[in-house]
Amino acid sequence: MTTPQLTRGAFLTGALALTGLSACGGNSATADPQAEPSFGATTRMSVFGTTERKAKLDEAFALYTTKFGGSVDLQAIANEGYAEKLATEMAGGAAADVVALFQHITAQYAREELLVDLSEWGKVLDVSGLDQEAIAAGVIEERRNALPLGDNAYAAFYDTTRLDALGVSAPETGHTWDEFLAFAHDVTTASGGDYHGTVDAGGDMNFLEVYLRQHGLALYSEEGGLGFAEADLQQWFTIWDELRADGVAPPAGVTAESTTGGFGTSLIVTGRAANFFIFGNVFKGFSSLTENTLALTAPPVLSSSETGLYVRASNWMGAYARGKNVDDAVNMIDFLVNDPDAVAVLGAEFGAPPNLELRDALTYDPADQVFVDYVNLIADEYAQPIPDLGLAFPDGSDRFLDQLQATNESIAAGQVDPADGAAQFVEQMSGFLG
Amino acid sequence: MTAAIGRAAPPKVSPRVGHGDGRWALVFLAPWIAGTLLLTAGPMLASLVLSFTDYNLLSAPDYVGLDNFTRMFTADPLWWKSLTVTTLYVVVSVPLQLAFALLVAMLLNKSVWGVGLFRSVYYVPSLVGASVAIAILWRQVFGSDGLFNQALGIVGIESSTSWIGDPDTALWTLVLLRVWEFGSPMVIFLAGLRQIPQELYEAASLDGAGRVRQFKTITAPLLTPVIFFNLVLQIIAAFQVFGSAYIIGGNGGGPANSLLVYTVYLYQTAFGSFEMGYASAMAWVLLVIIGAITAVNFWAGRYWINYGDE
């Protein structure tokens, strides 16, 4: 028998030792893609997004466990905070076996080789049925790091109810910049000025990327620096500056206010502007926020051969290279993209189903059907090749979005002109990029 | 059963009791000591080491010498921007907040019915002011359709300005939020005011000194130690403002980075870009800045604080 003092002392020492140990994390042996895979263990997946998404995944995993046995532990949190959480888990060696990924963190983890090279897992995973152009973006430094949970394309939404009332028809996919500008002016004029023909998208990184691609440029060079010159950016800022000056795009304060409350405060939903630019997979979400009918179309193009548009995953998923159960992880990824029942459950929740045959075989509700048709249209007629995620999101690129928005806001508020704004932006971003 | 026997035996040597007490104290202090070492001192030391490295959480830190600091001072306009925003915020908000706190404290330093209730009520903003809910409320109040513009409308000023969305005014809404959290300096002022002997005021009244004169010659000088205390504390706190700026700025730094206070930029660097080494360096520079300002405060204090014993 020991004395109470000793017990407590031992307890404390033990507790300290445990704290120290748990900080080290655990590594598991890397799974062998050549060995005969075994399924049905406990598999963990982490995902971001709405509760609806979690529910659909849970439903799909119920099918998985029925078919392969074992159990799936799905951890879902909101978009905000997911990247932070995953980074600490990755660093601590404790990330889930299957991880949902944003574009830029896919690139980051790929660089650190923290994701399983899926191209070695041909025995378990079949990618032949997927949109080859779209999945190519996930191949970084010759390793297939991730596959799409759903395919997506950049888009423009228009409030046709309001436009019909004003007697102006919404632009259609393939419309040019000149047509777009004329349209936006017409709407503003027809409404007497209190309804804006377009939102101010000068701070929208994804739209800028499309615009630059139309001019044969890109956000980043292959060396990881900026892929455009100051003058190019100045031109972009000027487009929106002139629209604001004419009252066609809303003033600075209105835009700034609208960007911070989620979709619900976007000007197309609050009824203050005719459009909104964003990736098409949220079309259903937007449609549900307004009583008005929305149309889904492409942003303006330079010409029919210079569209800058592309199809890319909305969300990626990869298998954690240090995960305990890589066999099931890869098998689950295959299941989510290739199993007809699983794809039927997920529908267009994450984007258009990546498996083209299954995508066409499925029936969708009206809003999702519009979106899936749009992705198909872009893929078939407008898409231009895109760089892989490693090139598209070099080190330091995570700052681009915030800084572009801040610079556009400075210009809109009259603090700097488009030329100085472009110069400041280029200087600041060059410091961030390796 | 040795423990029971040991306890039953009456202590013979008194020094051992003292020794035993110390050990027990240590046992009970242990959770706190462990917490301090593991959760405060350890991470601080780690961040000091990391500030000389390039560290992205995922791969081992690379020693880079003073690179992080040179980059901060020479190649990062945004860092300077965040420092400017924060300095402006501190310089404007702290004096305003203290002046307001002192004013309210003087109004509440009276023996009238219900004054206790008012003291509690006025303290409430200090408790809730730093919360996310209030920051979100603030966004609504100063939005283009917000309460503030409606209030202006009532007094005849038509305004559709989004005070939060305009880079020229956004910081002022943040300053106002800080001023509104005047409770804790107010309570300290109130305690200071209570210390001033009533006889002084009575004597001054008899000599014909008015309210203003009394404030200038009695209240202000005798309150200087308390003012100093509040000033030092509030400057330190204001430099570290985070939650309200983060929420009101829409997680990004506000319109045209006008709400990009130091800690928000630090947070973005650490948890947006995962540049842990650079962020650690930023944290230490902030510590040095706050330390230097506090030192200057103490030095300057010698010339204006009246401790009443000189």
Can you give a write-up of this model?
With 434 residues, chain A is α+β, with helices and mostly antiparallel strands. Chain A has helices at 4-24, 51-68, 82-91, 103-111, 132-135, 160-166, 177-190, 205-214, 230-245, 252-258, 283-287, 326-338, 340-346, 356-361, 366-382, 389-392, 400-412, 418-432; strands at 42-48, 71-77, 98-101, 139-140, 143-144, 147-159, 275-279, 294-297, 311-319. Helix content of chain A is 45%, strand content 12%. In chain A, the strands form two sheets. In chain A, strands 1, 2, 3, 6, 7, 8 and 9 form a seven-stranded mixed sheet that branches. Chain A has a two-stranded antiparallel ribbon with strand order 4-5. In chain A, helix 2 packs antiparallel against helix 13 and helix 12 crosses helix 13. The relative contact order of chain A is 0.17. Mean pLDDT of chain A is 91; it is low at 1-29. In chain B, strand 1 (53-54) and strand 2 form a beta hairpin. The N and C termini of chain B lie far apart (64 Å). Chain B has a two-stranded antiparallel sheet with strand order 1-2. The chains are: A alpha+beta (434), B mainly alpha (310).
Observed structural traits:
A: alpha+beta; two-stranded antiparallel ribbon; disordered N terminus; B: 310 residues; mainly alpha; two-stranded antiparallel sheet; 14 helices
In a few lines, what is going on in this structure?
Chain A is built from 18 helices and nine strands. With 434 residues, chain A is of the alpha+beta class. In chain A, the strands form two sheets. In chain A, strands 1, 2, 3, 6, 7, 8 and 9 form a seven-stranded mixed beta sheet that branches. In chain A, strands 4-5 form a two-stranded antiparallel ribbon.
Net shape of chain B: globular
Q: What's the total count of β strands of chain B?
A: 2
Unreliable spans of chain A are: 1-29
Kindly state the percentage of residues in helix of chain A. 40-55%
Sheet with most strands of chain A: 7 strands, mixed
What radius of gyration of chain A results from the CA coordinates? 24 Å
Strand order of the largest sheet of chain B: 1-2
Mean pLDDT, all residues of chain B: 88
Helix share of residues of chain B? over 70%
Q: What gap, in angstroms, lies between the N and C termini of chain A?
A: 62 Å
